[in-house]
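Exercise 7. Predict the structure of Bifunctional diguanylate cyclase/phosphodiesterase from Thioclava electrotropha.
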Amino acid sequence: MGNDGGKRAARKSELRARYQGKPGPVLLRREMIAFLPACGLALLWVGPEAMVLIGLTAILVGWMTRPLPVPPEIDEEGCDPATGLLPPSAAIAEMAASLQDSQRRNRPTGCLILGLDAPDQVLRRLHPKEFDLLLRRIGERLQAQLRSGDVVTRWDGARFAVLLRPTPRLGLEGMIQLCGRLQEAVSEPYVIAEQTQEITMHIGFHLVGRSAAAPAYRDDAATQAKADARANTEAEAALSRAETAAIRAMQSGPGAIRSSRSDKIATKDPGPHPLSASVGEALEAGHIKAFFLPQISTDTGDISGFQAIPRWLHAQRGILTESEILPAIEAAGLGARFSEVMLYAAFGALRDIARDGSDFGPASLPFLPGQMGDPKLAERLAWEFDRFEIAPTRLRLIVPQAMVARLDDPVCSHTLHAIKRLGCLIELAGFGSGPVSAETIRQIGPQRLRIHRSLTAEIDHNTEHQRLTAAIVSMAEGLGLETLAEGVPGIAEHAMLCQLGCSAVQGPAIAAPMPISEFLEWAERHRTKLDATPQIGRR
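Solution. The predicted structure, encoded as tokens:
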């Protein structure tokens, strides 16, 4: 359906919403007020017969000019009565036609599923007819942002399907920009029933690339029927993948965008967890806090950075560590909210340290693997940097080992490169605990390698751990990268890592994770102790 058809259907929907229902008693209409003085004058000047005649005339005129309800059934064009758009059943046919055109012209195409965030809350504020009017206006705004050949259809509930025509320059970056443009258009306030409504939408999209070879088309009916059936099957699969991405975007938080190609980085269902039911309340109540673990330079002994680590002050179980918190977060599907809490705590710590006039180096912050599938992650980070007035180089994002095997995903690669362009530092975690190729290091482009705690344990007397750690440090120095040893248990291991040339260390040998107030006190004591330490050349 073109834009003209959409406008006609929207106009019919507007008339239907305006005149739907019973018009009410005829004598109580506002138009009847003009007959009241006439009836009174007729009674005074002529008599009751004249007043009755004028009254009957008023009733007849009111009945003949009453507003007639528009039938609520679907109009002749087969449009959805509430939004004026094509119904959901037409989405498969439109997508199938787009796929056939894409194969014939060897051009990429795609589809998007857009849904309102928290539609139940919006429906509680509006009458069902007013909610339909809101959906219609959303559909009009979506159509205004698309080309004439692109199609917007109604999907189930408060969701829409956008079907794109084939175009030679459609890629991942273009799809992300289109999603942002659509979200910006629908986020403008709406005035419904003299109330201002503001909404956000999540988006899931599926991109269909160029075909390896264009299919040969024949004129016989049997071949064409097979081609149509295959196109319908592919259209159903494409819309299903876009819908799956939309569901994952809805679970990630308001305004999230997800691609169907992010299936590789979507974490598997971890199953039930005993803490998943209460972890959401703990996040919102502030019971899950960020503790900070100092990192010490092996060259100077000074603080070279710190890492934000979650701790849960549980009422029954005491203080829970990240090994117990992260599985509960993943089971509850609260990875996005958890990352927001940790990011806010890390930025607040950097701001407090800057106000104190100190410099303890960048803050290291681990992200869950699923967060790297968010193409708007770099945009939100840039906004947080501006809000807290912090340079991007003050933040180190830790790429977990589980992320290494998923770098082939285009959305993940796009997000990682956008973060690097922003200026954030990158750390590759778990080095030494799994296979990492030189190509992986080239793709990630980290500034520091994190040596896993399995190698730092017993490194003071385990010669195999010493050789492996020395090889990692030597390779990192050859590539111009720093190294950080995790989980250093004691003074002997710390001394050996210094001898092997590791750049920095963290762990129980240095300090345990602590709140920001205790961290600042510990840092002051540590630097006071360093200043009092005799050095070569000092009397």
